[in-house]
Amino acid sequence: MFRKQWSFSTIVLCLLLVQIQSASAQSASRPREQTLIWCSVSPIQSLDPTAHRDRETQMVLKHMFESLTTRNQKMEIVPQLAAHWNAVDQTTWEFQLKHDVTFHDGSRFTAKDVVFTFQRILEETSSEQSARKGLFEHITSVTAVDPYTVRFKTKQPWPILPLMLSLQEIIPAHDTQRPMVKKTIGTGPFRFVEMQTDQELVMERYSGYHQTPDTAIPPELLPRFLIFKKVNGFTSQIAQLKKGECDIIHQVPVDSLSILGSSTDIGVAFIKATRSFFADINVTKPPFDQINVRQALNYLIDKNVVVQTILYGHGQTLPTILQADTFSFDPDLKPYPYDPLQAASILRKAGITRGTPIKIMTPRENSRFAFTLASFLTRAGLVSQIEEIEERKPPQLGAEATWNLFVTSWGNTTLDPVDIMIPKLQTGGRGNYSGYSSPKVDQLFIEAEAALDSEVRKRLYQEIQRIVFEDAPMIFGYAAQEFYAYRNHFVHNFIPAPSGFPDLRQVYLKTER
After folding, report:
1. CA distances from 447 to 158, 166, 316 (A)
2. What residue ranges in 137-235 does DSSP mark as E strands?
3. Assign residue 328 a region: left if phi > 0, alpha if psi is -120 to 50, beta otherwise?
4. β-strand 69-71 against 77-79: which pairing, if any?
5. What whole-number distance in Å separates Cα of residue 168 and Cα of residue 196?
6. What would the pLDDT profile of 387-430 be if each residue is shown by its tens digit?
7. Buried-most residue among 168, 207, 337, 397 (CB within 10 A)?
């Protein structure tokens, strides 16, 4: 018996040694001075850009895959895989594709790849693809006119199609016998090398990339390898950054800025907010089915204190869920003021007495916001009960749910109402956790999406904002600036993209002391 155990242990040890030697050999083949390492607290959920709806995953995959359109530093829609495009009529768009693009296996990028990608999304019924399907529900067909022309048909006028196409990366149509190939082959500046579970993804610069680097940057200084590494906890990330085991981190907590700012080896950069934070109110459960009660909850929270205590002033309070830089934001609409006396009067008339329990559910990442909300509710005599969960979505919705408030956030990288207001506020929207339903708002959404005149579209979305402000299906919160930290003596020309999707093509590496 002892001999069998010893033999098994020896085998395991040998296997571990082989793995360590293999990892060491791979690491040795990637010189550190040619390797850019990005650390994140979030895992990579998929290597298939048609099979996820995770912002951090998309941030990573955009270095291997590309979209027909993209956005520049001014947030303008510009060509990426498309050369140019035009509206044939109110429901038809044609995109002319670039001719000099190849996938990482050397095959040419053509219209059939675009058609394949969108057919995969629009015709898919699995849970992974169905989420992306919602982004393009207005598209009825995608066809190849010729090898380098693609025609999109929509069921109604949809003027923001070029904007929405920046959210979907293209995968190759060929090699259907090896579906994993399509998940790792793109047209981007870096190609797939290897991935260790969801902990580390290694890419290498693609020599056949169709866009030439900035001629002012010596090619030998451009990173040859790009590694995205999951590191649990910001404390560990900051420690690795200081030790040189990591080069860039993002979503830096604002309470760490003073520590990072004291180091001459670390640079800090930020972009304006692309994510809104708020608390969904379960409107299907009495007494929160009453508009005045929901308004009272908004009066109970001092939003300015929230921004100061959680964000140290690096953010903005919101009157609804739209950020100030979003298209159609209504500047005349001001956040609910802090008015506990008015709130108390409303609650008293609604029969809500001191000691009434309010159950708050929150993802752990939003727990600080949740506890801050709870402190204001407690100050008003209500009894807050907080439940922390790992997921970003409540396990139950509707009247059977155990929560009254769900503390959450929603990204808005397009800075357009379409990818935050519609999923959160349309009846049955995929992110509509509150159960809010307004026939008037639903109709305005339909009209706004079909409006060809941007001023008409702006007016319709502003009307929606005013209705939502009054209906108060959420405790409206804040939007926070997003911070990055990087090794400034090694990483150069790092300019965060305002979309929240970093572009590392022009970053170069050079040790300076």
Report:
1. 10, 23, 29
2. 139-146, 149-154, 190-196, 200-205, 225-230
3. left
4. antiparallel
5. 25
6. 999 888 999 999 999 999 999 999 888 899 998 999 999 999 98
7. 168
